[in-house]
Amino acid sequence: MGRSFIPEENSAYYPRRARWYSPLFYLGNTLRRRLALDRLTLPHEMKTAELVAGFFVPGLAVWLRGPKLWGNAALVSCAALSLVFIIGLGYSMANLAFGLLISIHATGFVYYCNPLMASEPFRNRLAFTFLTLMAIGLLLYMPVRNFIQGHWLTPLRQNGHVIVVQRVFQAHNIHRGDWVAYSLQEDEQGEAHHGGAVWIRSGMGLGPVLAIAGDQIQFGTNGYSINGVLSTNLAHMPDAGTVIVPEKHWFIWPNLDISGHGNVGEGNVSSAMLSLASVNQSQFFGKPLQRWFWRKQMLP
């Protein structure tokens, strides 16, 4: 007579089905054999998990090796240096804190690996210290710093002040009156005048958006007007003419340092500045923050 219910039981004969992540373990074991890492053994004072954590977390290696007093001091020092680097972004004190942070991190990792290198000659220990410093600096800190400054926050120096620019900001959210940082076009040449010329060096521009797409700008001797609203002329603005801001453009009057060489007329300078004032949204770099922590940003 058949049974109505037969419970399933794991058979000792058939192996368990491989999981989706099993190929990762197979690949890791293959690399260990090919690189002969399976022949390397760590001293009993060291653990693989602690070794990896000490490499990635600054100051943790000293805390793991002990004594705890020095470990706590290393962790607090690394946290304080990280904060100084973030607050002083772009200033020399931030660069100093960044270098000290790398030094403490690398020194702590070498200190944790002391049981592994204790029996090695001085030359090998010195080479290991140098390689550790290079690995932590080039493989860990430099990529992180470049990613932060390339995608999130970038310090720009203008008129002796550092201005932190927020990169995670969309160009279509910019309105009239907002300050923006934008890239200047490279090597633009103005009209020649009695053997002289106007050259604009490549770099970054920073200024407020005076007008947006569709706005009409009229220039005169008594000032310039945007959609009929009169304002005082800015440096090197033309004294006549009308401009309509094209689509996906902003009107930002350049704030540049000008050095004179040769006989260059004011008309040439105004014409070059006017060509730069029409900024395509593709040139958008970021939006400067009004404050960076408690420090008010000194916008020009």
Characterise this structure.
- 38% of the residues lie in helices and 19% in strands.
- It is an alpha+beta fold.
- It folds into 2 domains: 22-151, no CATH class; 158-296, Umud Fragment, subunit A.
- The strands form 5 sheets. A 5-stranded antiparallel beta sheet has the order 1-2-13-3-6. It has a 4-stranded antiparallel beta sheet with strand order 9-8-7-10, with no helix packed on it. It has a two-stranded antiparallel sheet with strand order 4-5.
- A hairpin with a 2-residue loop joins β14 (291-292) and β15 (295-296).
- α4 (68-87) packs antiparallel against α5 (92-112).
- The chain starts with 21 loop residues before the first helix and ends with a strand.
- Residues 187-196 have low confidence and may be disordered.
Task: Record keyword descriptors for this entry.
300 residues; alpha+beta; Umud Fragment, subunit A; five-stranded antiparallel sheet; four-stranded antiparallel sheet; 19% strand
Q: What's the SSE blueprint?
A:
Layout: H1 22-34, H2 48-56, H3 60-65, H4 68-87, H5 92-112, H6 114-117, H7 122-151, E1 153-158, E2 161-166, E3 179-183, E4 188-189, E5 199-200, E6 204-208, E7 216-220, E8 223-226, E9 229-231, E10 241-244, E11 249-251, H8 266-277, E12 278-280, E13 284-288, E14 291-292, E15 295-296
Antiparallel strand pairs: 1-2, 2-13, 3-6, 3-13, 4-5, 7-8, 7-10, 8-9, 11-12, 14-15
Helix pairs in contact: 4-5, 5-7
